[in-house]
Amino acid sequence: MARRNPKTRTPDKLKPISEDEAQVTITVKTKKIQRVQAILAQKGKASTLSDSVDLAFDYYLDREDPVRKAKRAKRKRSVCTE
């Protein structure tokens, strides 16, 4: 199917499998996920696909989530004032 029409994608899906986990079906750029896994392998960290995606989510949330940003800023202020 992808060879005949590479633009056709299956829709993204999220299926809960437990209270804190879900099975995710998505389409990602192959080179990006391979690069993430290669960087993790170089650092000696877990490089399974699910671990790579989980670490990428954590990285993004640490930098973009307003709640995490506020906690980081608060910790930074308390260290600077000591």
Can you walk me through this structure?
- With 82 residues, the chain is mainly alpha-helical.
- The chain has one domain (13-72).
- 55% of the residues lie in helices and 10% in strands.
- It contains 3 helices and 2 strands.
- The protein has helices at residues 30-42, 49-64, 66-81, and strands at 13-16, 22-25.
- A two-stranded antiparallel sheet has the order 1-2.
- A hairpin with a 5-residue loop joins strand 1 and strand 2.
- Helix 1 (30-42) crosses helix 2.
- The N and C termini lie far apart (61 Å).
Give the topology:
Elements lengths: L12 E4 L5 E4 L4 H13 L6 H16 L1 H16 L1
Antiparallel strand pairs: 1-2
Helix pairs in contact: 1-2
In short:
The chain has helices at 30-42, 49-64, 66-81; strands at residues 13-16, 22-25. With 82 residues, the protein is mostly helical.
Order of helices and strands: EEHHH
Structural class: mainly alpha
Instruction: Report the principal-axis shape.
Output: elongated
Calculate Rg over CA atoms. Answer: 18 Å
Number of helices: 3
Poorly predicted runs are: none
Major beta sheet summary? 2 strands, antiparallel
Helix content: 40-55%
The total tally of domains equals 1
Q: Kindly state the number of beta strands.
A: 2
Terminal Cα span:
61 Å
Strand order of the largest sheet: 1-2
